[in-house]
Request: fold
Amino acid sequence: MIELQNVWKSYDFGKTFAVSNMSLRVNRGELLGLIGESGCGKTSTLKMINRIEEPSSGDISVNGEDVRLQNPEQLRRNIGYVFQGIGLFPHYTVAENVCTVPQLLDWPSSAVLDRCRVVLDMVGLPAAQFADRFPSQLSGGQQQRVGVARALAAQPEVVLMDEPFGALDPITRADLQEEFKSIQRKLELTVIMVTHDMTEALLMADRIAVMRQGEVLQIGSPAELLNRPADPYVQKLMEMPKRRADRLEQILGGDVRLGAEG
Ligand SMILES: Nc1ncnc2c1ncn2[C@@H]1O[C@H](COP(=O)(O)OP(=O)(O)OP(=O)(O)O)[C@@H](O)[C@H]1O
Ligand SMILES: [Mg+2]
Reply:
C-alpha cells in the first residue's frame, strides 16, 4: 500500500510547486495510472515515494510505514522502479543490470542467476540470447524491457513505473502491457504507473489519477472518470481514446464519400 497525505514539493524554496497538496492511496494489489501533461509533477511524485527526492511537506507511507523513518537505500531495494527514459547502467551487462538489487540484498548467486533468467523471460528477452549484452547492443524497446525486468528482479510488492512502455512499437507495447498486467494480478503488486497514453491507462489501471500543474484533479475508476469527469480537462482526456477510435472508423469504414464529408 502507498499513501500520500497533503504532499507538497517545491524545487525553488516555495516560489513554485511541482506537486501541490497531493493526497492519494494505492491499495495492495492495485494498479494506479498517473496521467497528465508534461511537467505536471508525475515523476516528482514517484521520486518522493522512494526518496530520490524529499517532499517539502506532507506525509508518505509505504505498507503503513512512514518512508522518512526508513533508510533510503533499504527503501529503494524494496520498491521496484522503472525510470523514465530507461536509465540502465551502460557498463553493466543485461544480467548485471537486472540483478543489481538481488545482489545488493545478498541473495545466493544461484538464486540470483535463476531469478535473472525468470524475469528476462517474463519480458520476452531469453537470457541465453540477451544476458551478456550491454545496453548499447539492444534496441530502445529491448532496453526498456530490461528496465521492467530489473524493477521486478528482487520480487518487490510495490513497483513505481515512469512511462515504462514509451519506447516500444505498438504491437510489442500491447503484448507487454498484457504481460505486465497479468504478472501484476498474479503477484498482487501495488503499482503506480505513469503514462501519457489514456488508452494504456484505461486498459491497465484499476484507478486513474489525473494531474495538472502539480494537483490531482480527479482520482477514480475508469468508469467513474468517463461518466462523471470532475473537470473539463479530465473530460477531454477521457474522450481522447474514443475520439481516435471514431476517427479511425470514419477513415477505414468510409468510402469515396469520405472526402466530401470532410
Ligand atoms: N531536480 C529538479 N530541479 C528543479 N526543478 C525540477 C526538478 N525536477 C523537476 N522539476 C520541475 O518540476 C516540475 C514537475 O516535473 P516532473 O519531472 O515531475 O514532471 P512530469 O509530470 O514527470 O513531466 P514529463 O511528463 O515531461 O516527464 C517541472 O516544472 C520541472 O521543471
Ligand atoms: Mg516525468
In short: The CA atoms of residues 139 and 167 lie 9 Å apart. The first helix runs from residue 42 to 49. The radius of gyration is 20 Å.
